[in-house]
Amino acid sequence: MALAPRHLISLSDLDDGVLDEVLELSARLKRRTGRGELAGKTIGMLFFRGSLRTRASLETAVLQLGGSVVNLTAMSDFWELEEREGSVMDGRAPEHIKDAAAVLSRYVHALAIRPAPLGNSWDVDRRDERIRAWAKYATVPVMNMESSLWHPLQALADVLTLKERLGDPRGKELAITWVHSPTPASPSAVHSLLHAALRFGMRVRLAHPAGFELDGGVLSEAEDLARASGGTLRRELSLEEAVRGARVVYARSWQSLETYGNPTLTASQRSRHIGWRIDEKLLASGQDAYLMHAMPVRRNVEVTDEVLDGPRSLLYEQAANRLPTQMALLVNLLR
Fold it and tell me: Residue 15 and residue 33: Cα distance in Å, rounded?
């Protein structure tokens, strides 16, 4: 009987031992090229919304391991898919995810999916039903290339970057700070980083304006992870309180879940906090603090040029680490 495929929807799908294995292999792959570990294997990549770093880094990872890639983009390469079980398909979608996943599983050895949120209700989008439907129906591993709730591929690169700069991250101070942007991102990268940092026993400080709280379920799980690892989580801090004495400042603009689905209210709420920005004076209040950001970053809105182009910025290094961590993950999932 065939074993069920191993999926990666969030980092919780990797236990501590496997996570350590992936990070150790990532470090080795930075020092050498691939050795054909994916020779004869094909990875299918499906994008239901745009991507720059994820698409380029994951495709490069497959190619450097000797594999091949099938890239499909919604609207240009295929059509809308139905994900509801038992639905009467007399609407716009001509095909069900069940059928698409079953067929594509016969062509490729793994599927990497970047689903699009519906964008109307956080209670609905936080369930990540679309990526979970692919995992349910596929007979090959499914990798999450960023859903509404999680961005595990970014978190792997983030953790590798933290370990390279800090050594053992346990007990080190990490400030996760909201910053203003006219186009805020999903909280997925911050959710994944928060859990990853606490699994490694970091002392995390979380800063954001009122109304920009992270998902309640994610925060509850984060508290559990902190208790289990000996890490700590301090919440509801000001930007200055979070950064003061921190070793790493992770800046990110994320959507308000309080006004999710209402762009008018969201824009009004966000406009009251344009002062939430990282500049040199603020970063200098850290303990020789490094800056991290998942990108894309709006220069001189989220972070000043002086910081981004300065010696404490790890953004390019962080982005570069997407490559070896994804190579290591592919080797682990497909071995």
Answer: 26
Would you call 139 exposed, middle or buried from its count of C-beta atoms within 10 A (0-12, 13-18, 19+)? middle
Q: At what angle do helices 16-31 and 152-166 cross, to 10 degrees?
A: 70
23 contact partners, CB below 8 Å, separation of at least 6: 156, 159, 160, 163, 325, 328
Model pLDDT for residues 283-334, shown as the tens digit of each residue:
999 999 999 999 999 999 999 999 999 999 999 999 999 999 999 999 999 9
Whole-number Å distance between alpha carbons of 24 and 41 = 23
Is CATH 3.30.1050.10 what the domain over 11-150+322-334 is classified as, yes or no? no
pLDDT, tens digit, for every residue of 107-126? 999 999 999 999 999 999 99
Distance separating alpha carbons of residues 332 and 316, to the nearest angstrom: 25
78: confidence class by pLDDT, cuts 50, 70, 90 = confident
Q: How far apart are the first and last CA of the chain?
A: 17
Tokens encoding 228: 């289990």
**Domain assignments of the chain as residue spans, ordered by start:** 11-150+322-334, 152-320
Closest CA to 152 of 313, 293, 329, 290: 329
Instruction: Give the mean model confidence (pLDDT) for residues 175-203.
Output: 97
From residue 304, give the alpha-carbon distance in Å to each of 41, 251, 298, 309, 312: 43, 12, 9, 9, 13
Considering the four listed CATH numbers 3.30.450.20, 3.40.50.1370, 3.30.230.10, 3.40.190.10, the one that applies to the domain covering 152-320 is: 3.40.50.1370
**What is the pTM (predicted TM-score) of this model?**
0.96
Residues 215, 195: Cα–Cα separation, whole Å: 12
